[in-house]
Structure formats: structure tokens, C-alpha cells
Amino acid sequence: MSPDKLTGHRVQFAAAARSAREQRGTWVRLGVYGSVRGSRTTVGRIRNGKADFAPVGAWDAYSAACEDGQAVWARCIGGGPAPAPLPDTMAVRIRYDGEGPGYEGVGVLTVTISTRCPRCGGPRGVETIRPYRFAHDGQHLVVDAWKNPCGHEDVYAAVLAESRQERRATPTELVQAAYAAREIGVNAAQAANLLERNGYDDAAALVRGEIKNREGTFTSLQVVGFLQELTGGEAR
Ligand SMILES: [Zn+2]
User: Each residue of 136-159: pLDDT tens digit?
Assistant: First the structure.
């Protein structure tokens, strides 16, 4: 008898949870989901101490975008002193080669990026950030270097691109600003369309689902509260 897909998934999940418990304090990737909603439901179950994750407060979990969907990462924190919380973002100094040819604008830029690896969603090596000195054209410059525990390496060009993306308005900010500027009206469907136009397909789908749940009595301002509550911060 072969286990069906769901049973197989549960077995994998339980094994990952067991492994995470054995390595208390270490972030472990528990699974990957096709949607933000699926991953956030799991994060909620873990934080609320359901099933393999009892009791409440014994686990820390988050979901983050990764190359193949939305990854759920968790660490067991029960039964000992609480490890330092993982910040959402980190500021790092990177080498900037300028926009034009000839390395004329070479210098150091401080940028803010997520503490999650864009490839696997795992935590970046925040504690490993160290100064790295180099010389360019007689100038002595200092940037930051770090090592991610997942093994994926960050290159400065990708980090710069990510920081530019990071400065983009979050779904909640976008809806609030558009509503204040009267670019969208009171109807939540307009907020959903706005989110979709700006590439926030997951957030748009969640809002549309909620419009159905609330049978049409859902306003753009309620969308703001809904997104905040859902994400415990911000969804990307
Ligand atoms: Zn990684």
C-alpha cells in the first residue's frame, strides 16, 4: 500500500518537525506552498502550537517567497532560553560600480534588504556580517560580507536590485495611498484590481476571496486592516 499524496506530505512534515526539534534554535525549512495563503495558514498553526508544534510558544515560524513558491521555515525555541528574534530586514554596505562604463562611480552604498534568502527563503547570515576592506583608485573602502547558513551566496548586483525592489510600496501602503489620493474608491474590488496591476497577485486574490466571504460589504479601508492582520506586517 503506497501512501497517498496528502499522507506523504504529512510524513515529510512530521520528519522535518522532528529534525527541527532535535536542532533546537536552528531554522529548518518545513515545506513549500503554491500560495501565500497556504504557507501563512501553516505558520499560524505552528505559532499556535497545533499538532506537532505544541505547546504554544515552543516554535517560531515565518513564510517567505522562494524560487519554487512560498517556503515555511520554523525553529524550535521551547525548553531553554529564547534565541534572538530574526529581524525582518538588514542594512548592509555594498560595493557600487556606478551606472556607466569605466567604473567612474565606484563607491559604497548602504542598502536595506530582507533577512530571507531569495532562493530558498531561509534566514540570511545576519550574525556573520563582517567588514570587508578593499582599495579602489587610491581610496580605501569598506563593505560588508556575510555567509548565509543555507549556502546560497549573495552577489552585490542582486542585492542592489533587491534593495530597489524592497523600497517599493507594500500592498497595504499602496492601497492606503491610492485611497487617500482618490485613485480608488470605497469598493474593495477596486483595491484588488490596484494590487493586481502592481504585481501583487497573491494579495489581490486574498482580497477577492474576502469580498466573497463578506458578501460584498468590504471597503478599501477594510482591505488595509485585512492585509495588516493577515500578514502580521506586510505581504510581498
Ligand atoms: Zn538560501
Answer: 888 899 999 999 999 999 999 999
Residues found in the chain: 236
Q: Three-state SS for 139?
A: strand
Q: What does the domain layout of the chain look like in residue ranges?
A: 5-76, 89-166, 171-231
> What is the C-alpha to C-alpha distance for residues 205 and 70, in angstroms, rounded to an integer?
15
CB < 8 Å & 24+ apart, contacts of 14-17: 14/52, 17/52, 17/53, 17/74
CA 173 to ligand 1 centroid distance, Å: 28
Q: Which helix (H) or strand (E) holds 32?
A: strand 28-33
- Using a cut of 0.90, tell me whether the model's pTM lies above it: no
Please give the grid coordinates belonging to residue 161. Answer: 536590485
The answer, yes or no, to whether residue 74 has pLDDT greater than 90, is yes
Q: How far apart are CA 91 and CA 195, in angstroms?
A: 27
Ligand 1: centre distance to CA 107 (Å): 27
Q: Which three cell numbers stand for residue 218?
A: 468590504
The SS3 call for residue 84 is coil
Look up residue 113 and give its amino acid: I
| DSSP for residue 70 | E
- Return the axis-axis angle of helices 188-197 and 171-180, rounded to nearest 10°: 120
Question: Distance from the CA of 13 to the center of ligand 1, in angstroms?
Answer: 19
DSSP 3-state of 142: strand
| pLDDT surpasses 80 at 9 | no
